[in-house]
Amino acid sequence: MSQKINVLVLPSDKTGVGKFRSIDPHIFLQNLYPDDFHVDIDYEPRLNDPNFWKKYQIVHIHRNVGGNYDQTPQLIRHLKSMGIVVIVDIDDYWLPTKEHPIYQLIVQNKIHEKIVNNLREADYVTTTTEIFANEIRKFNKNVVIFPNAINPDEPQFKQPTLESDRIRVGWLGGSSHLHDLQLMNGFVSKLGNEINNKVQYVICGFDTRGSVTEINPKTGEQRRRDIRPDETVWAKYEQIFTDNYRIIDENYKKFLLEYREGEYKSDITLPYERVWTKPVTSYAMNYSKFDISLAPIKNHVFNRMKSQLKVIEAGFYKKALIASEIGPYTLDLKHCLKNGEYVDGNAMLVGENRNHSDWSKFIKKLVQNPNLITDMGERLYETVKDKYHLKNVTINRAEFYKSLIK
C-alpha cells in the first residue's frame, strides 16, 4: 500500500464498552499493521473544525459522537460529503425492556430513535453477531460482523485459578441483570445441604454506588439521594446466591450486611464470596475465582441481540459454562448432555421452560462429576481460542478497511 490509511476512532467511553468495541481493536490494528494504518483515538473531537477531519479516510463511531445524538447524523452526512467512510459500531439493541434501569431515560429522550437514525446515515455498521446484524439490516444493508474478542496476553486473562476444596460456582456482570438472575430463583435451596457443603457461590462486580430519586406523593417534589446498600440490586443478587443468607452463619451474614469492602477470614473456604467491582481493565481476572460460570438471560429482544462475550471470556479461562439457551448463547455452544449423560458438546444449556429445575440439576451434575468441569472447560477453550482471538479478528478488520479505500 502506497500510503497509510488514517483512521479516527471515536469511542463512547473510556471505561466500559469502548475497550472492546473501539479502543483495543484499533490499537491492535495499528500495532499489527504499522505500515498500513495510522489510528487516532479521540474522546473530544473538534466537531465544528473542518480541518480536523481532512486527514482521515475512515471515521469509526460507537453509537454517537461525544454523547451528542442530535448532532451526529448531521456530522455523518458532512463527513460523507468529504469522501470519508463513516462506520457506526453498535453492540447493544437500541431499546432495552421496561425492566431495564435506563428504559425510561431512553424513551423520554427518544435515544433509541436517534441511534437508529445514526445507523441509517452510516456508510457501514459493524456489530457483534449475525443475530443482531439481521436486525440492523432493516435500517442499513451494509452490516459487517466483528465479534468481541480477547487478547489472551492481557494480564487480566492470565490469572491462575486458586486451588480450593470447594467447587466454585460464579456469576460476573453488572447492575442491569436482576430479571436474568431471577430465572434461577431458589436454585441454591433445591441443591440441598449435601451439595451446598461442597460448593462456594461467587458474585463478581458487587457495587453499592448510585442514587435514587424520591417523589413526595403530596407535593410532587423530587429529591435525589445516595442509594442505601440494601436497596441496590446487588443486595438482591446476593439473596439469590445465598438462599437469603441461609447457607452462611450469623457472623458472616452480619459482616456482609455491613457492606464494607474487605476480606472475612479466608474467603476461599466460605460457602459464599462477594467480590467487589473492578475496572474494565482488570474485571476478567474474577474468572479465576470460580470453576463453573453461570450465564442466565431472559428471553427478550434486548438479550437476543447481545454479544456472546460471557461465552468467550469463560472459554479463554477454560471454565465450565451453564447458560440460557437463548440468542447469543446458541451461536457457539452445544449442549453436552443426552438423557442426563455426557455425550459431546462444550456447555450445559438451560431451555426457557426448564429454568425452574435445570440450573440446580446441572450444577449438581458437575459437582458430582468434577472431571466434567475440566472437560467442558477445555472444549469451550477450543471453541473460542482462534475464532475470538483479537489478532484473528483484527486481520479480518484490516482486510475490510483496506477494501474501503481504493
TL;DR of this structure?
With 406 residues, the protein is α/β, with parallel strands linked by helices. 34% of the residues lie in helices and 18% in strands.
Strand tally is: 16
Mean pLDDT: 94
Number of helices: 15
Spatial strand order of the main sheet: 2-1-3-4-5-6
| Straight-line N-to-C gap | 10 Å
Largest sheet: 6 strands, parallel
Q: Structural class, from secondary structure content?
A: alpha/beta
What is the secondary structure topology, with strand pairs?
Elements: E1 5-10, H1 17-32, E2 37-41, H2 50-53, E3 58-62, H3 72-81, E4 85-89, H4 103-108, H5 111-121, E5 124-127, H6 130-136, E6 143-145, E7 167-172, H7 178-181, H8 187-196, E8 199-206, E9 211-215, E10 222-226, H9 233-241, H10 250-256, E11 272-276, E12 292-295, H11 301-304, H12 309-316, E13 320-324, E14 337-338, E15 341-342, E16 348-350, H13 358-368, H14 370-384, H15 390-404
Parallel strand pairs: 1-2, 1-3, 3-4, 4-5, 5-6, 7-8, 7-12, 8-11, 12-13, 13-16
Antiparallel strand pairs: 9-10, 14-15
Helix pairs in contact: 1-15, 8-13, 12-14
Q: What would your notes on this structure say?
A:
This protein is α/β, with parallel strands linked by helices and 406 residues long. The chain has 15 helices and 16 strands. The protein has helices at residues 17-32, 50-53, 72-81, 103-108, 111-121, 130-136, 178-181, 187-196, 233-241, 250-256, 301-304, 309-316, 358-368, 370-384, 390-404, and strands spanning 5-10, 37-41, 58-62, 85-89, 124-127, 143-145, 167-172, 199-206, 211-215, 222-226, 272-276, 292-295, 320-324, 337-338, 341-342, 348-350. The chain has a 6-stranded parallel beta sheet with strand order 2-1-3-4-5-6, sandwiched between helices. Helix 12 packs across helix 14. The longest helix is centred in the N-terminal third of the chain and has 16 residues, at 17-32. It starts with a strand and ends with a helix.
